[in-house]
């Protein structure tokens, strides 16, 4: 009887697992060396144990060179796959957009009243309903804009009216001030041209008998001088005001 097929599963016994790892690791490194020699292939092998210990093998070209080559190849493969996917997506997207553009152009011609022969009765009714709805929306928007424009003009008119009233009040106040100044100037000129003012300015005052005299020669002379002075004073008192 031949050997039965060994079932691959994790070895639960820790010692047996470590022994198996050592044997299989040695065999794996040996196989990697054999394939590199027999087939002239660049081989890089990296193994980490359960404890984190590193075991590696590489051909004469070196591990770094092989890993760098691997990175370039992986990047090129990813770019190629991405490009193919993008090209497929762009092709699908282009087809969708092209069909949408054709439908929009067809609807536009229908809205303009063109290419109506190919439309059925139901399609024409739907087109008529769409045009009615669009016309109602257009009229509603137009009325709204007109109402807003009228409201704005009314606000401007109100502001201008208020400004006009304010300027009118200021003008009336200025007119009152000018009239008051003119009235004061007229009264002043009338006062200067009156006869009493002219006489008081043109005629000098006369003082008759206002002089004082000193008599010589005793008491008789004094009494006579006093009588003369009193007489002159009384005469000046009895004279009119304009002769003084």
UniProtKB/TrEMBL annotation:
Pfam families on file:
K-box, SRF-TF
Tagged with keyword Transport: no
Region annotation Disordered: residue ranges?
172-244
Residues of the K-box domain: 87-177
Output one GO BP term: positive regulation of transcription by RNA polymerase II
> What do the Gene Ontology cellular component annotations say?
nucleus
Assigned keywords, A-Z: DNA-binding, Nucleus, Transcription, Transcription regulation
Taking every annotated instance into account, which residue ranges of this chain make up the domain MADS-box?
A: 1-61
CDD domains, from UniProt? MADS_MEF2_like (cd00265)
InterPro entries reported for this sequence? MADS-box/MEF2_TF, MEF2-like_N, TF_Kbox, TF_MADSbox, TF_MADSbox_sf
| One term of GO molecular function | DNA-binding transcription factor activity
Tell me where in or outside the cell this protein is found.
Nucleus
Q: Does the keyword Chloroplast apply?
A: no
First-listed, main subcellular location of the protein, grouped into a coarse class: nucleus
* Composition-biased stretches (Low complexity): 180-206, 227-237
Which named protein is this?
Answer: FRUITFULL-like protein
